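Format is chain and fold; as here:
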Amino acid sequence: MKARRLLQASFRITLGLLILAGGWVYHGAQNEGAADSAYKVLTANPAITIGQIQAGSYLNTQTSDNGYLQMREMWDGSLNARLDIQFNNWESLTEAAREKLLRIEVEFEGYQNDATESWYVQFYDYNAGSWYSTWYSLGIFPSSPDGTLRVTISDTALVRRFVSAAGAFRLRFADAGTATGSYEWTRTRLYFDLIRARFVYDITPPTSTITAPADMEYTNAHAYTVRGTSSDPGQDATGVSSVAVSTDGGSTWNPATPVAPGNYSTWSYNWTITAEGTYTIRSRATDGVNNVETPGSGVRLVVDWTPPQVFSVFPSPGSINVGVGTLVTARFSDANGMNAGTINTTTFTLTDEEGTPIASSVTYDPGTMTATLDPTSDLFYGYTYTARLTTGITDRAGNPLPAIYSWSFRTADILAMSLVDTYNRDGTPGGGSVDFGSMNPEGSPYVVGGGTPPYAVNLRLLSSTGWNLFTNASGDLTDASQSPAAVIPISQLQWRQSGGGGWTPFTLAASQVFPTAQNRTPQPGGSKLPFDLMLELTWDDLPGNYSTTIVFLAMVQP
């Protein structure tokens, strides 16, 4: 057999009471919008004009506990059965000033022995010093068990007249005959179990929030529209009646404009700014019963009308011999810093002297307020470059550079020449020399070049400036193994640029390859300069193994 598991639960209720002779006292604020309402009960027996107390007292009406205050109608002078009583003594209203009252709710709990008798209440008008003329209908109590009759006054102007400045409150309770002048003959008995009045206040301040500017926003405006929202929280809100704005941290206040008359759900304040500086902007809302918000810390707005300046640049304007791998930088000066988003490859550029933009990346360091332009590849030697900062660059407040700022610098010059390769007469690589091979005057002249590859000597020249090329031989073609040495005049060795043209004899003095100076060569890579060589023999030239050295000299030309 399976064992059964017993489950047990318990709970505990804690009651707080104030015990007086003859019953409980129920009083104080109730939780409806925090302390925005309070129940009040009687503190003395009623004053009876017509009718009488049968049993009990006001203490029996301070809580719903089946302890009753029994009342009975009496015959008046016309033998009409009536009940006319005044509940003049209530707990004083101390929660808030009467101008914050919104409504009064009066509640009677009990029963009656006559199922047809109806009841009314009348309130004392403290402003007029007399009973208010209107009777308010409650209805009919049940004959059994207890029932509740209520009446609510929501006209705030009346509500505040029904309470004195000191918090006093008076209430008159009567049957229909007294209130309406009708007649009936049954003497009704009433059994009051609970009599209380609920006073509803608005003591909760409204709230407001600034939506523009954001905290630590920067602006260069001379006029600014402060914007925000407001609301009146709580179940018993009277609504926001006004919003004020301070632009000096709370020293002075100015009225805001609602989005529509009486509607401060959103609001604005048009502010004319008179000076630069950091302003603390706060807002303060007031509701319909003059509850005033305690302003928060607010937001800060930085007003800056001063344009930024270029403090320094690198390379400095007019620099020469700048490295081709250099970074271009610009450092700014501004009291509040630069708008990093405006410093980019559109507003910070570099072009060469031919106007060609240089592909680059741009970064910005807010700590030093320095912008850095980093070319994607090295710059060319011997070129003049221009860096440019446009007025699209702004500070954090939106102030642009006052004018386009540009400067130029020149990279270092270079002149370099190298031997790419050489070829022999039979088309094989020469390895730095040229071999005409075996030859005799019958086959003269002999040419190395004009075939594949189409040259004897191939040079590469890289120059960032104007240049010219000179060539000569170090000596005649000589076979030093003979005695005396056999010599072929150097003029019988000739050169030309590959691809045609006339032949030029070598000399022992340098001769100019180009009649005029050449412009600088394309970078990177430079220019290739291929040359053909031709040797012309005569029958007077002795057999032998001849050689000489050919010299090419590149020189900068103005």
In short: The chain is about 0% helix and 45% strand. The chain has a mean pLDDT of 91. Helices lie at 156-161, 176-180. The two ends are 118 Å apart (CA to CA).
